[in-house]
Amino acid sequence: MFMISNFLLALAKLIDFVLGAYMWIIVGRAIISWVNPDPYNPIVRFLYEVTEPVLSRIRRVIPAFIGGMDLSPMILILAIIFLQSFLVPTLKQLAVTMG
User: Fold this and answer.
1) Closest Cα partner for 20 from 81, 89, 93, 92?
2) Which end of the chain is more exposed for a tag (fewer CB within 10 A), N or C?
3) Alpha-carbon distance 54 to 39, whole Å?
């Protein structure tokens, strides 16, 4: 049973790390959207390719507000914070109760 407990702890840490890294990628994309970036720059292309599939789904559900302001990165960051605050501690608590 301790193997499953250790697996869940490791999974919780991995999910927390991946969500945190993805949040910083979204922040980077939001920052470069304020300037006119070179679309052929590899970093810009990476940021757009990694974030656009998720952000486009959010944009379909929630359209742009007054002034054309895109709030999809903020909504995605809030969703990531929710997952980090709910899913990760739940997995850790489940692992502790199993061990």
Assistant:
1) 81
2) N
3) 19
User: What are the sequence ranges of the domains in the chain?
Assistant: 15-85
75 φ/ψ angles, rounded to the nearest 5 degrees: -65, -40
Give the pTM: 0.87
Instruction: Check: CB of residue 1 under 8 Å from CB of residue 92.
Output: no
Give Cβ neighbours of residue 88 (< 8 Å, ≥ 6 apart): 12, 15, 16, 19
Contact call for residues 90 and 18 (beta carbons, < 8 A): no
Q: What distance in Å separates the CA atoms of residue 57 and residue 55, rounded to the nearest whole number?
A: 5
Q: Cα(first)–Cα(last) distance of the chain, in Å?
A: 6
What average pLDDT does the chain have?
A: 92
Single-letter code of the amino acid located at 9: L
Helices 72-98 and 42-61, packing angle to 10 deg = 90
